[in-house]
Amino acid sequence: MRSAVVLFPGSNRDHDMVKALHSVTGVEPTVVWHQDASLPDVDLIVLPGGFSYGDYLRCGAIAARSPAMLDVARKAKAGVRVLGVCNGFQILTEAGLLPGALMRNAHLRFVCKEVKLEVTNNDTDFTRAYAKGQVIRCPVAHHDGNYFADPETLARLEGEGRVAFRYAEGTNPNGSINDIAGILNEEGNVLGMMPHPENLIEALHGGLDGRGLFESVATSLAA
Amino acid sequence: MKVRVTITLKAGVLDPQGKAIEGALRGLGFAGIDGARQGKIVDLALAETDPDKARAAVADMCEKLLANTVIENYDIAILG
């Protein structure tokens, strides 16, 4: 599986993401600078976590308008799989590739801890390696992860099975509506999530729970 | 031409920062506070001299970048 990681000024989880992709797929991902107007031909594009542009204006707002994101939008429309983690999720909502918005955590504090995630829908290209309803461990580290969408959008997301992950067992760390931790676009090829699956990849991380997500994408390509 | 954009959260969107401000004001003994909402202001200096054209250009800027219309409203004022 060929993959690319888009690097923005202020990204800081790009190295973790590159290592995770390499570890699971065996292929080194291409790192693309956000000013590049054209991304290489890959199977998966990843927007990593961090604080692009220092969270100026709104988290992800400036990065969402960068030249690379125009090509990400084009490729997403053409069916290329796109994963946005943490700041990457914020960028995807700001770019209009995913609905809703990520707001300041309800309790106003930065959270850096492990949460429990329920695999709400395992019939997606990103979650097939998990069982439906399976609860996995995953770390979060963010200040603006409070997912919000208007009632109509929320009803569509829930009705169409587009909530991929939900905070489970009372671990919602940010006040997200319906405990939403990760959502898909209508076509199912774009996933945004606040938790960091790339940080539970090696035994030394303390667990392997994040591998399934990357394995799912690789498997979906082979199918 | 100077233009001021005021960006506020839509009604019904939780504003935890506004809530914290409200709580702090109450803590200082200010009575009769029914609510506090926090927003932001962007002041623009434009080459445009026609107020209508300036307003239209800034509305476009708001839709494309300055406001996230999922959660925010914007108001445009020509300052002169």
What does this structure look like?
The complex is a heterodimer of chains A (223) and B (80). The radius of gyration of chain A is 16 Å and the shape is globular. In chain A, the strands form two sheets. Chain A has a nine-stranded mixed beta sheet with strand order 2-1-3-4-11-10-9-6-7, with helices on both faces. A two-stranded antiparallel ribbon of chain A has the order 5-8. Chain A is built from five helices and eleven strands. Chain A has a single domain (3-222), classed as Rossmann fold (3-Layer(aba) Sandwich), CATH 3.40.50.880. In chain A, strand 1 (3-7), helix 1 and strand 2 form a beta-alpha-beta unit. With 223 residues, chain A is of the alpha/beta class. Chain B is α+β, with helices and mostly antiparallel strands. Chain B has one domain (2-78): Phosphoribosylformylglycinamidine synthase subunit PurS (Mth169, Chain: A). Chain B is built from two helices and three strands; from the N terminus they run E-H-E-H-E. Chain B has helices spanning 16-27, 51-66; strands at 2-9, 40-45, 72-78. Chain B has a three-stranded antiparallel beta sheet, with helices on one face. The radius of gyration of chain B is 16 Å and the shape is elongated. Chain B starts with a strand and ends with a strand. The model of chain B has no long low-confidence stretch (mean pLDDT 95). The interface between A and B is medium-sized, with 20 and 11 residues.
Strand % of chain A is 15-25%
Strand order of the largest sheet of chain B: 2-1-3
Overall structural domain count of chain A: 1
- C-alpha Rg of chain A (nearest Å): 16 Å
Q: Structural class given helices, strands, pairing of chain A?
A: alpha/beta
Give the fraction of residues assigned to helices of chain B.
25-40%
Relevant CATH superfamily of chain B: Phosphoribosylformylglycinamidine synthase subunit PurS
Strand count, sense and closure of the main sheet of chain A? 9 strands, mixed
Major sheet characteristics of chain B: 3 strands, antiparallel
| First-last Cα distance of chain A | 12 Å
Q: CATH architecture of chain B, please? A: 2-Layer Sandwich
The percentage of residues in β strands of chain B lies in 25-35%
Shape, per Cα inertia axes of chain B: elongated
Order of helices and strands of chain B: EHEHE
Give the tally of β-strands of chain B. Answer: 3
Radius of gyration of chain B: 16 Å
- The assigned structural class of chain B equals alpha+beta
Look at the structure and name the CATH superfamily of chain A.
Answer: Class I glutamine amidotransferase (GATase) domain
CATH topology (level 3) name of chain A:
Rossmann fold
